[in-house]
């Protein structure tokens, strides 16, 4: 199968869709399953196995970009994340910082700087942490922007892409173990687990460039079910070949999970490709005994799997418990050494939904103004969202069951049609043989010769002795036709009529079956339309709920904005009042008020009237004022000025 086409697109013909694997990683530490990447994005979810409640970890620091098909390992109460590819189209993972550390208790991310021969950026690889505080990186595929070709793959191999890289976690220095052994594999999408000082590598897409020509645009990859063992003390590769008499071998797969428990490797799920080139998920468990090299199947937690990729798979606190988070609402666990059946546990995802709603909520200022309290029933809202999620899950499961039922019905109709066609062909062959025999008998009766046994019964009879018998009887080839020959002719005609009737009945049954299939197809189309209408109605209802939630959030934000504006206005008014009080203190007492008009003395009023009268006379140029009136005017003006100064 094509190495690049299998990764990039989705569908049939050996191509992988996004539903095959979410590219999510999970580890177990401090009583919690930690889920990061893939369908979760750049967030971190924690499942507390004591209360079985989900919550989202509020992260800070050097938060890495969203990624998938990376690796996550636990080391000293921290989660180490290495490599991966962007989880969105066009979103690339930074090549400058490939190693990140997360403290699950504080939610602080740290970009870890390393030295030495660092491995090239990659995804679909594996990583294990050894007891002597070292992290081992192996395999994967390059995360380059250009398409992968045979020439670029050869160059990557020459530069040591498929070598083993070991990071000393104490001094953070890389060391490369060169790939000198021809048996050393080149894998991506495989799984690795640690047993003592051995790294157990299983499955994956195995590359072989020994016969690859540079004229081929893309290299090829083959699904593998081999078990490779890398000795970390001698730096040697070995391949565990199963014995010929061992028939129980798991199906070749990739993008699966494996864990080492005691002296066994537990392998779960993965991607398989059928003989038609169609990729699909497989959900089964296998146990590999390291001492004997034998595989044996192990019962999975669900007898009827819905085809979804689980949210997380990891080993629990006891190191013998396999924990699978099916989704946000259901988890399964089993103790490999003690239990025979899986245990089902319901989970509470309400905090995940609440964090999603209130993650961008603004704080309300309370210094100078207290806004109205908006009561939100968080439990009811979480219950509503949880019910909506369950309804979506139910619709998806119903659609999947209906698709499976239709597929099985089509297979049954096809098998029935093939059986009817085979029966009709057999009957037509018998009818042709009987018609030939009847034609031969008719010709014999017309000529008057007796039929031979092979003409009557349709079989060949040898006649080695053609001489007349001694008992006086007449042989077949000289005897005339008799009554028994006519009876045989009538019997064959009756058989022919019966076969023709049977053929007509089968043809009628075929027509009825075709009509029934057409009617059933029409019913299926109508049912599909109805389900589609229900899905559209559910989507519309969900959109309406989201719009209502957005309106509620908008009202909350508007109230908060109004509260902030009113707080600023009141603070400004308070500042203005303080400034006015300070100015009044600086100026002192206010000046006395002007006297009212009733308090003005009578003589002052008379003097003002006289001045206005004299001013009106001086305004006339053709009537000059009398000379004796000038001193009076001057005196009145001086007195008025004094009164004004007094006022």
Percent helix: 25-40%
Query: What is the strand arrangement across the widest sheet?
Result: 5-11-10-8-7
Low-pLDDT ranges: 1-21, 357-372, 458-470, 473-479
Oligomer: single chain
Shape: flat
Question: What is the first-to-last residue Cα distance?
Answer: 110 Å
Structural class: alpha+beta
Radius of gyration: 48 Å
Give an overview of the whole structure.
It is a single chain. With 647 residues, the protein is α+β, with helices and mostly antiparallel strands. The chain is built from 8 helices and 35 strands. The protein has a 5-stranded mixed sheet with strand order 5-11-10-8-7, with no helix packed on it. The chain has a 5-stranded mixed sheet with strand order 12-18-17-15-14, with no helix packed on it. A hairpin with a 4-residue loop joins strand 33 (321-325) and strand 34 (330-335). Helix 3 crosses helix 4 (378-447), helix 4 (378-447) runs antiparallel to helix 6 and helix 7 (602-618) crosses helix 8 (630-646). The radius of gyration is 48 Å and the shape is flat. It starts with a helix and ends with a helix. Mean pLDDT is 75; it is low at 1-21, 357-372, 458-470 and 473-479.
């Amino acid at each position: 199968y094509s190495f690049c086409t299998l990764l990039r697109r989705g569908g049939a013909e050996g191509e992988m869709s996004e539903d095959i694997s979410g590219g999510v990683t999970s580890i177990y530490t401090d009583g919690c399953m930690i889920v990061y990447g893939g369908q979760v994005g750049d967030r971190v979810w924690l499942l507390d196995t004591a209360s079985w409640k989900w919550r989202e970890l509020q992260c800070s620091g050097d938060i890495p970009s969203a990624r998938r098909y990376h690796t996550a390992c636990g080391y000293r109460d921290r989660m180490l994340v290495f490599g991966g590819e962007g989880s969105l189209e066009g979103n690339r993972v930074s090549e400058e910082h490939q190693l990140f550390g997360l403290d699950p208790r504080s939610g602080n991310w740290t970009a870890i700087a390393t030295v030495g021969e660092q491995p090239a950026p990659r995804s679909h690889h594996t990583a294990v942490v050894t007891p002597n505080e070292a992290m081992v990186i192996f395999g994967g595929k390059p995360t380059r922007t250009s398409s992968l070709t045979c020439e670029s793959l050869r160059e990557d191999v020459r530069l040591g892409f498929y070598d083993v890289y070991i990071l000393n976690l104490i001094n953070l220095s890389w060391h490369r173990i060169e790939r000198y052994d021809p048996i050393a594999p080149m894998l991506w999408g495989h799984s690795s687990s640690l047993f003592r000082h051995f790294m157990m590598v299983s499955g994956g897409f195995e590359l072989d460039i020994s016969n690859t020509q540079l004229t081929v645009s893309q290299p090829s990859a083959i699904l593998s079910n081999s078990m490779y063992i890398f000795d970390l003390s001698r730096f040697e590769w070995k391949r565990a070949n199963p014995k010929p008499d061992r028939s129980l071998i798991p199906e070749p797969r990739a993008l699966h999970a494996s864990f080492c428990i005691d002296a066994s490797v537990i392998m779960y799920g993965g991607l398989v490709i059928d003989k038609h080139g169609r990729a699909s998920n497989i959900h089964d468990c296998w146990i590999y005994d390291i001492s004997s090299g034998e595989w044996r199947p192990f019962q999975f937690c669900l007898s009827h799997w819905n085809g979804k990729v689980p949210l997380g798979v990891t080993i629990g606190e006891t190191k013998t418990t396999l924990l699978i988070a099916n989704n946000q609402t259901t988890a399964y666990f089993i103790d490999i050494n003690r239990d025979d059946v899986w245990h089902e546990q319901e989970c509470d995802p309400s905090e995940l939904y609440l964090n999603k709603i209130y993650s961008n909520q603004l704080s309300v200022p309370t210094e100078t103004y207290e806004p109205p309290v908006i009561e939100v029933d968080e439990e009811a809202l979480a219950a509503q969202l949880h019910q909506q999620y369950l309804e979506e899950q139910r619709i998806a499961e119903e659609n999947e069951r209906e698709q499976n039922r239709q597929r099985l019905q089509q297979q049954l109709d096809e098998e029935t049609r093939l059986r009817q066609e085979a029966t009709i062909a057999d009957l037509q062959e018998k009818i042709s043989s009987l018609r030939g025999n009847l034609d031969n008998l008719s010709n014999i009766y017309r000529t008057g010769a007796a039929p031979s046994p092979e003409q009557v019964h349709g079989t060949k009879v040898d006649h080695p002795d053609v001489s007349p018998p001694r008992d006086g009887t007449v042989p077949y080839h000289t005897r005339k036709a008799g009554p028994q020959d006519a009876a045989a002719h009538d019997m064959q005609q009756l058989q022919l009529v019966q076969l023709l009737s049977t053929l007509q009945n089968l043809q009628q049954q075929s027509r009825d079956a075709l009509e029934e299939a057409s009617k059933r197809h029409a019913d299926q189309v109508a049912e599909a339309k109805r389900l589609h209408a229900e899905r559209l109605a559910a989507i519309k209802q969900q959109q309406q709920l989201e719009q209502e939630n957005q309106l509620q959030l908008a009202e909350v934000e508007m109230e908060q904005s109004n509260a902030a504006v009113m707080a600023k206005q009141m603070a400004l008014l308070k500042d203005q009042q303080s400034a006015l009080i300070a100015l009044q203190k600086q100026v002192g007492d206010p000046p006395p008020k002007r006297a009212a008009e009733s308090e003005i003395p009578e003589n002052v009023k008379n003097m003002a009237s006289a001045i206005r009268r004299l001013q009106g006379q001086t305004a006339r140029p053709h009537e000059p004022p009398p000379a004796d009136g000038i001193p009076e005017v001057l005196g009145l003006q001086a007195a008025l000025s004094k009164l004004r100064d007094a006022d």
